[in-house]
Design a protein that fits this description.
By secondary structure, the protein is of the alpha+beta class. It is built from 14 helices and 17 strands. It has a five-stranded mixed sheet. It has a five-stranded mixed sheet with strand order 2-4-9-6-7, with no helix packed on it. Strands 12-14-15-17-16 form a five-stranded mixed sheet. α2 (about 140-170) packs parallel to α9 and α7 (about 265-285) runs antiparallel to α8. Keywords: ATP-binding, Coiled coil, Kinase, Membrane, Nucleotide-binding, Phosphoprotein, Signal, Transferase, Transmembrane, Transmembrane helix, Two-component regulatory system.
Length: about 625
Amino acid sequence: MRDRTVRRQAAALLLLAALCALVMALCARVNAQVVREAPTRGAVALTQGAVMALAVEAGDAREVGVDLVGEAGARYAAAVLGMTGIDAAALDGQSLGGARRGLPLIGAQVEFDMPRGGARLTLTLRLPAGADAVYLGTPQALSALRFGRMAAYVALLSYVLTMGLYVLLLCLTRQAGPEQAALGLVCLLLLLTQAGELLGQYPGAAALAGSSRATLAAALCCYAGLALGDGRETRPVAAALVAGVALTAATLLLLLASGRVLLQLPARALTVALCVYAGLIAWRGLARQARRNALGHAAAVAPLAVGAAWEAVLGASGLAVPSLVLMGAGMTLVQQITLSREAAGDRREREALERELERRVDERTRALRQTEEQLRRIDRSRSEFFSRIAHDLQSPLTVIRGSLDLVAGGVPVTDEERDAYVDMAKQNALRMTNRVKALRGLALLDETPFAPQVGALSPLLEQCARAAEGVYRKSGVVFRAECEADLTARFDAGWLQNALDRLISNAVRYTPAGGAVTLGARREGYGVWVSVADEGCGIAPDEQEGIFDRFYQGWNSPEGFGIGLAVVQRVAQRHGGRAQVVSQPGEGATFGIFLPDEGELAPGGDAPDGAQRGRAR
């Protein structure tokens, strides 16, 4: 699945690189159509809609002469762009007025009317070392060219400069990562590559533009390494940055020393090599999914890498449409969209984590409240328990003491009365003994060995039913055992019989004479339910809550200390299951013990139909 995703993303990245190359080609075509090169020989034919560019060699020469032909009487103009000024202009030897100093991006311009049969235009330029070109055409065409050029440069350069300064400001305030710092450096270096377009009449500007493209490509490698790299490209990128800066410095020093622009070919070769290396870094990071939104970060590298390599090989052509700045603007836009998506993803993950923490806190709070309520219920049950102990032990002690006082206190009694008092004392002593045994039963339960084994349940249930018939013969209750002969479970016979005896005793207490107590077992889900059902008065829903707690006694429990069902719950838990009750007032009650299969825990959804978890009387 991941390989398929990587292949799709790689195909998308290649498609984007091809699209960037197509955009560069379209920009070059548009620039070539907007301004056409003037022929080097013969007269230059001017038309109403076209602008012709007459190349001017750099150097000490300031005069430019050209033969022009065009529509007689039509208004034409000659212009230079940038800081170049026009000292003087003459048409067929007659001076033209309106010459002025050039302005950035706007330049200077003179206008003239075309004589019949053409004319010779002579310009004297004001510049240190000659202009790039003189542009010839109608004033309207030159104004449109100048306006479009200025609008494109101002818009794109302002966007790139703003983004670069903004990112660097974020880095200074420690609100941005290192890859954004590299992006800010790329934006600022991109401005230097446009020095040749803005100040092309100065040889230093052309030298700076050509060599700074190599530094720009090195900064692009730095961005790719920080965004998608794995550390292997750190030293090569640092060396590339040093090489780019050194190449720019050497080019400017050689220009000052010799007056010529040198080292342009090495600068172009280094630019292409570094653009290819930036693409490889992005490709490798995309292949190993270096980070979330790796495709977005790789896509941010593609526009500027393709644009810088294109201009290094085919030369800059940004008179009307600054293609490299357009690619840089595309890079910053893609990168900011990618970072915005990452920030949105981080925010969603943070919100999801906060919701999960809130959910866990709520669950823990509810659990603590339930535990607190259970502890309060146990405290109430314990208080009632001790009060009942004091009452139940005080009554037989009072009877025993009174009987002994009558027998041994010298009060005249007959033999029959003395025997009756002694018998009464013995019965109350036995009652106290039973109470003490009941108190010790729960404490001694955990000391009893527990050795569960897989066995049939039918013999155990039938044995318990037969034993109950003998013990409770006088109650008039009928005992039945309903269980499939081959039904097996994993249980400890002694522990389970202890729990069943207590449930049977409970059932007999509430079942009227002639009623039935049914012992049953059936398989459900991942275990077996063993149950004891009576035909008594039933248990109200509010009475079922907390009925398995120690010392709990229901409103209709006439005797006992509330330990019997706590023992049942402990037996169920020791087997890895739970005890449960199903009852409605007037319809009897069914108490069950869930015995899970070996290696399984009792699932919450495997309770009998209509059951509510947990509490028996």
